[in-house]
Request: fold
Amino acid sequence: MNKPSIIIQCRFNSSRLFGKAIYPLVKIPILVFLVRRLKENLDQNFYQIILATSDQKDDNIIEEWGKAEDIPVVRGSKNNILKRYIQTMKIFPSKTIVRVTADNPLTCPEIIKWLINEQQNKCLDYVFCTNIPCGTGVDVFSNNVLEALDKENLTDDEKEHINLHILNNKEKFKTFFPQLTDERARPDIRLTVDTFEDWLKLNTLFNPNEKAPWRISLYEAIKRVDKNSIQKQQVT
Reply:
């Protein structure tokens, strides 16, 4: 119960970009890039990293990649993501649950640690940082609030997007939305993969022969985005 659970939600059959979880990023699947990034920066003596995918046949490949990277895999509901989290929590109990999505390969481990500390020290239901690049942050929940949500009469959207009910009813929960004040405070930058164009742009941040590219810091990623932007402006 003392280890925060870092739960990576992932499915192959994405409605926005089919199969994006295994699109290559510097020659390895996006999901693998993310898993290696988290494993190298989050000591598994203090954090547990779990892959939560659906029980659909399409997601057999997701399970295989999780096993290949030596992390536990839990399979559950396709669309009721909250139920998938509850199922994972029963197998891997924890007081603190971190939601990570597999289309965010540059999720920042340092931000994960920071938000976990905020959630635990202030005994909060929900924590989220709003002023960082899209695709680098996470949602941090108490286990109690997720269990309470599971007993609510939620809409289908609220079951799929497990923070939605909280965001729509902030007065009912103990929430906190801290903001960074350093160079990482760049909400204008997009580092997620929702579209084919997102994937192409993310690949331009790396040298094809770069070793262990998942080790890139968020500071360095932002520098590379800015450099690419300047070069593009100079060309046009």
Q: What stands out?
A: The two ends are 55 Å apart (CA to CA).
